[in-house]
TrEMBL record, chain A:
Keyword terms: Hydrolase
Superkingdom in the source lineage: Bacteria
Entry protein name: Hydrolase 2, exosortase A system-associated
Domain Serine aminopeptidase S33 intervals: 35-155
Gene3D superfamilies: alpha/beta hydrolase
Keyword Glycoprotein attached: no
NCBIfam families: hydr2_PEP (TIGR03101)
GO molecular function, one term: hydrolase activity
A Pfam family that the UniProt record links to this protein: Hydrolase_4
Organism this protein belongs to: Acidovorax carolinensis
Alphabetical list of InterPro entries matching this protein: AB_hydrolase_fold (IPR029058), Hydrolase-2_PEP (IPR017532), Hydrolase_4 (IPR022742)
TrEMBL record, chain B:
Keyword terms of this UniProt record: Hydrolase
Protein name: Hydrolase 1, exosortase A system-associated
Domain of life: Bacteria
NCBIfam families on file: hydr1_PEP (TIGR03100)
InterPro entries xrefs: AB_hydrolase_1 (IPR000073), AB_hydrolase_fold (IPR029058), Hydrolase-1_PEP (IPR017531)
A Pfam family this chain is assigned to: Abhydrolase_6
Molecular function per GO: hydrolase activity
Species name: Acidovorax carolinensis
Ranges of residues in domain AB hydrolase-1: 50-266
Entry coiled-coil feature ranges: none
Amino acid sequence: MSLLGRAMLPQAFFLPTGSGKRFCLFHPAPGDFVRGCVLYLHPFAEELNCTRRVAAQQARALALAGYCVLQIDLLGCGDSAGHFADATWEAWLQDARLARHWLREHASGPLWLWGMRAGALLATALAKDLSEPCHLLLWQPVVSGQQQQQQFLRLHTASQWLGADRASGQTPSQMLNNGQPADIAGYTLSPALARGLAAARLEPPPCPSGQLVWLELSVQAEPALSPASEKQLAVWRDAGWAVSAQALTGPLFWQTVGTDDAPALVQATLDALAKTPAQAAPP
Amino acid sequence: MSYHEHPLVVTGPKVQDMLGIVSLPAPGAPQKTTGVVIVVGGAQYRVGSHRQFVQLARFLAAAGYPVLRFDFPGMGDSPGDPVPFEDSAPHIATAIDALRGQGTGVGKVVLWGLCDGASASLLYMQARHDPRVAGMVLLNPWVRSDAGLARAQVKHYYRQRLMEPGFWRKLAAGGVGWQALRGLGKNLRAMRQKPPETLTFQELMAHGWKAVEGKIMLILSERDLTAQEFVEHAKTHPAWRGLLSRPGVTQHAVHGADHTFSSSSAQREAEAVVLAWLNDLDR
């Protein structure tokens, strides 16, 4: 493992696993006082690329604010080993477990699981089988894997309109249902991953409940949480989670390749986490 | 596993630290002395759309070639402000230094660039005349200009808009039509723009092309507007006269490919063409 110690760049390393290496970035908090540690779980397919910059900005800002942040590229994603076609939901969950374990060995304080879009689904799934209490930071969470998958399959339809893909006999969902992989927007989605993703739901893990920070972006000048989000949040409150939810004005940067910044989101994240005192962690 | 990867801080006296990944042949496997530096463009980070750069780097490393991919400042995981592709020569120089300084035994390098990464590679040669660069692989080079874009918009968009009855109804009702007309006026002015006194980046690219003493491989996607604009520009602009047919220049068109070679067959074809060309160069 080679750790890179230059200022401002995170420490980059490959974490060995039973099925190849996973690329990781560790942003240690400078100084001795650590407010907590944060595990970042990235979004699905090309959304990982689109969100990389803003995630890096947030990770640096969190580190400066006293948090130790670990980012992991899941199997077949980013710089990690394997092809996207090899990935399964269970393998990703296993990667998330390993990353949490590594983070716990290298940082102390309350644990935050930070998930973006489908990463929020993975974060809640991880929280469900943890033996330690945790808090959740969810950015633009996808409330069901089924929804994420439908959006992804729509990219195939769009590319057919643009004439990029020749129409084959079967639609991607038919192929997946028949146990065949489907090529969509440069990614090969396996039936196993499709099954696992489709079954994933954003459900509050059983006790002990912690803090839930839920942040959404909208291009509206006066953004508001969607009725679907409000409905979700009620479930979390009922399950005993302390919910802090906010809609902010900002670009939908997970949808576009560009250099969009989301300073309101970065600041709101810092503010929300700062409200949770480092010592008030569940025992 | 037929490749080996490690993170690398790409650092130099005149540039901010950048995060890179070096891909090498598996330990013990024979290694070439020609290295490849992937010059990332188009607001991508080192992984590339649908992991195009990751897969290319691993493919070439497995065939013996050391490859470096890196994030320009402000992109992906590198901190700092984004660098326009026209100003990226110091960063490319530093990346070449970094790959050669790795004890990898790399002597000459090949620059591989897609879109404005291809443009940046040519501008690098124009600025530096670097004798360490043995060749270039340029995919769908970016030559867009205000005048060229204005011409394309007038041709494809406004002509069509002016034919639509709805446009004239909106105009009569004081709707958005006026805005469109103002846009048309702006585009017509842009089309008539006199060429600036200083050289345009497209002219500097032509000088860079001439400055390559090694070989150039030009790969064009069949279904890509950027590629078509480049060919049109190179055919009609005086600065480009005769450059595509110079000795040492090879052209390859990938049938059915889009801008980022998103279908797996297009990607495999582009990879195979690059490897065959590299093997010829390295001989």
